[in-house]
């Protein structure tokens, strides 16, 4: 990031923070935001916090009875004790935390969630009454990608993932969703850490056999590669391997369409990496494909580092959702900055926009 961009980002952070800190505490009731300020989740917490404040200032400016926001550090101590503390202090709504283990801890005792609570991560535990789970879960992207690839008439796909439990689980979910169509098949394959990626892809995309030509002393043996019958490649891997797949397919002369989860796309990557991703179809946040209509939100979003914009958008939507849930406003889905959001029994599921990577970044992609 340039020095000028860094300065703009710091100025934004200072401005948004000072506006809230300067506001007088006039009422007992308030909205509590539980976000980490220390440890490995601190940077993510800051990005969500800034997006939330930006949306708060945009939507609540000039509103006489706008709710007060108070922020609490979720990174230390018992999250259940912190939750009880903020509720006892007058919180009528809680936003956060984002740490998965802390979300799990709160949901392990559902009776503790005594006020409306918007949890900013996904748990395997159900959402009890008055609570909702909202996140940037890549699993939400799978239905749109499956529908697009099926619409394109594809049948046999290769799903690549890293040697990581989360990636493996997403690949399995993608494969299961893909196989629901008659005749559709999916082959899941892990990308080994200690083997050249070109060698891995070659073995997955081709079968090899030995062919002999000539006779006697002039007999020669050749290795013949026969393409395996794949229609497309799906990427459920991380961004380190994500940017390498398409160039290697070109090198191997395999003209296969590539569909990817957002985990495979690093928006902070160098220009050369984006060029390597050109043509890849993946699910991106609407806020990164089309500028927010409100100029203040657009300015705030652009001032953040490119890799933080997804979390910033999550913060913007978290405030909008919290107010919708607090007021029991009917009507779903909600058109959010992170996608079209629907409430399925406390699970707030996103339907993101499909995009295609171009030389200067992602662009909205319409199904041909």
Note the main attributes of this structure.
single chain; about 375 residues; alpha/beta; Rossmann fold; 8-stranded mixed sheet; 17 strands; elongated; disordered N terminus
Topology, please?
Layout: H1 3-21, E1 30-35, H2 42-60, E2 69-73, H3 79-88, E3 91-95, H4 100-107, E4 116-119, E5 131-134, H5 142-151, E6 156-162, H6 165-178, E7 185-191, H7 197-205, E8 206-213, E9 220-227, E10 232-235, H8 239-251, E11 258-260, H9 271-276, E12 281-284, H10 286-289, H11 295-302, H12 309-326, E13 334-335, E14 340-344, E15 347-351, E16 353-358, E17 361-364
Parallel strand pairs: 1-2, 1-3, 3-4, 4-5, 5-15, 6-7, 6-10, 10-11, 11-12
Antiparallel strand pairs: 8-9, 12-16, 13-14, 14-15, 16-17
Describe, in plain words, how this protein is organized in 3D.
The structure is a single chain. Helix content is 38%, strand content 24%. The protein has 368 residues and is of the alpha/beta class. It folds into 2 domains: 3-137 and 290-351, Rossmann fold (3-Layer(aba) Sandwich); 139-286 and 356-364, Rossmann fold, CATH 3.40.50. The strands form 3 sheets. It has an 8-stranded mixed beta sheet with strand order 2-1-3-4-5-15-14-13, sandwiched between helices. Helix 1 packs across helix 2 (42-60) and helix 2 (42-60) packs across helix 12. The chain is elongated, with a radius of gyration of 24 Å. Residues 1-8 and 19-27 have low confidence and may be disordered.
